[in-house]
Each structure stands twice: as structure tokens, then as C-alpha cells.
Design a protein that fits this description.
By secondary structure, the chain is α/β, with parallel strands linked by helices. It is built from 9 helices and 10 strands. The structure holds adenosine-5'-diphosphate and magnesium ion. Residues 2-237 form the ABC transporter domain.
Length: 241
């Protein structure tokens, strides 16, 4: 579903942020990406839906090359759900309108259909009662669940998460992770940047460890948690576990 092949990216001629990154995510797989701050995790995940350009290598999603100038990027992005650390809801729109906007503007769904889908997804993330509120009236955990529902409203074939719980108060982390665990169990293909190793242990198929722009480790979860090959991953794990 996602093929990342020998990707090199520079933010400036003297600063290479990604070095020869190669990995893939098959349909229904959940891959957790971890590593120290500044190691290139966000950059890599943004390259997958072409929010960041890269100079060398290839990435394709469901067979569509994201770095091909002929690729219809808005169309591709509409099939790749993305959830960020800071929710990024539209503050001036009610929750239900946050869920409907792209369904109508990008997918051309009727208002009735978009609302029905939006309400169904709000129910799924336990927020049906909040539909008429504005984002600022919700807790961080609720806003992040809305952001996930909004991404799901587009019927994505892949979901990308970039530290979806790291801006949340501790008591709100599990309500967001629970939604993500359900998604994983339903067979969604997911690439998740997170340091929540409990989540990784529960649902990840593989764990990727990045350091200084390189994929240092890419292993089945059992191997990664059993004994990471590299010193760098071992050191990292000993700090966060
Ligand atoms: P991570 O998500 O692992 O913390 P990032 O991908 O955000 O890492 O950043 C990797 C490196 O690239 C960091 O050194 C960061 O400062 C730098 N960086 C990130 N975004 C930009 C940008 N737009 N321009 C220049 N440097 C950037
Ligand atoms: Mg990041």
C-alpha cells in the first residue's frame, strides 16, 4: 500500500534530513515509527502524502507515485488520511461542519450524505452529542477524536498519524489510542509516529526506528521489543520504557 524507496531529502544544500529511507507498508498493516526528536519522522510521513517534496527516491501509495508530476495530488491526498499532533480542526466551524467540508468540496457528496456520514463517524468515536459545538468547546482528547473521524469521513485507504497523543494531557491519551486500536483491528492500513509503546505492542505489525534521518531498524514488533539490533534503538528504548 505504501512503498518508500531510497528516499533522500535535503532541507538545504547542507542539511540532509532523510538518508536512503526504504520501507513499505502492506495492506492492513500497522507500522509504528519511533525515534528521537529531530530524527526525521514527521518529514518522512509528510513525504508519503506529498506535503513535503523530496529530491531523490520514490514513494508510491496504492501504486500511485507521489513524486510523479503527473499525479493528481489532491485526489491522492483525499485517500490518505492524516492526523497531526495539534488536531488542526477548523476553529470557526462546528464539529459536524468540520467533518462535512472536505466530503462536499473534494468528494462532491451532497450535504445530506456528508452529514449522515459525519454523524455516523462521530458516533463511532463517541462524540455524537458534540456535533453542534465548536472545536474550542471540546477537550484535547475529544478534538483529536474529531480529527480522526474527519479523516475517516473521506474513506481513506491509508491513515497516517504524526504523534497524535503527544499534545494531550495524560488522562486523554487512552481515549484517542482506543479509537486507533479499533481502527487497526478493523484492518486499516496505518503508519503511526508515536512513542506510545503500549499501542505499538498491542497493534503494530512492525516498528521502524529512525535516527538522524536514517531508518536504523525496521523489524517485526516481537523482534524490536525483544532485542533491538542497534545500540541506538536499545538506548532509545531504555529511555522511554
Ligand atoms: P521528528 O519528527 O523526528 O522530530 P522532523 O522531521 O520534524 O523530525 O525534523 C527533522 C529535522 O529537520 C530536524 O532537525 C528539524 O529541525 C528539521 N526540519 C524540519 N522541518 C524543517 C523545515 N521545514 N525546514 C528546515 N528544517 C526542518
Ligand atoms: Mg515530529
Amino acid at each position: 500500500m505504501i512503498e518508500i524507496s531510497h528516499v533522500n531529502k535535503w532541507y538545504s544544500p547542507t542539511f540532509q534530513v532523510l538518508t536512503d529511507c526504504t520501507t513499505s507498508v502492506t495492506k492492513g498493516e500497522v507500522v509504528v515509527v519511533c525515534g528521537p526528536s529531530g530524527s526525521g519522522k514527521s518529514t518522512l510521513i509528510k513525504c508519503v502524502n506529498a506535503l513535503e517534496p523530496f529530491q531523490e527516491g520514490d514513494i508510491s501509495v496504492d501504486g500511485t507515485k507521489v513524486n510523479d508530476p503527473k499525479t493528481n495530488l489532491p485526489k491522492l491526498r483525499s485517500r490518505v488520511g492524516m492526523v497531526f499532533q495539534h488536531f488542526e480542526l477548523f476553529p470557526h466551524l462546528k464539529i459536524i461542519d468540520n467533518l462535512c467540508l472536505a466530503q462536499q468540496k473534494v468528494l462532491g457528496r451532497s450535504s445530506d450524505k456528508a452529514v449522515a456520514k459525519g454523524m455516523q463517524l462521530l458516533e463511532r468515536v463517541g462524540l455524537k452529542e458534540q456535533a453542534e459545538k465548536f472545536p474550542a468547546q471540546l477537550s484535547g482528547g475529544q478534538q483529536q477524536r474529531v480529527a480522526i473521524a474527519r479523516a475517516l469521513a473521506m474513506d481513506p485507504i491509508v491513515m497516517l498519524f504524526d504523534e497524535p497523543t503527544s499534545a494531550l494531557d495524560p488522562e486523554m491519551v487512552s481515549e484517542v489510542l482506543d479509537v486507533m486500536v479499533d481502527l487497526a483491528h478493523e484492518g486499516m492500513t496505518m503508519m503511526v509516529v508515536t512513542h506510545e509503546m503500549g499501542f505499538a505492542r498491542k497493534v503494530a505489525n512492525r516498528v521502524i526506528f529512525m535516527d538522524r534521518g536514517e531508518i536504523v531498524e525496521d523489524a517485526p514488533k516481537e523482534d524490536f521489543f525483544g532485542k533491538p539490533r542497534s545500540d541506538r534503538a536499545q538506548k532509545f528504548l531504555s529511555k522511554i520504557l
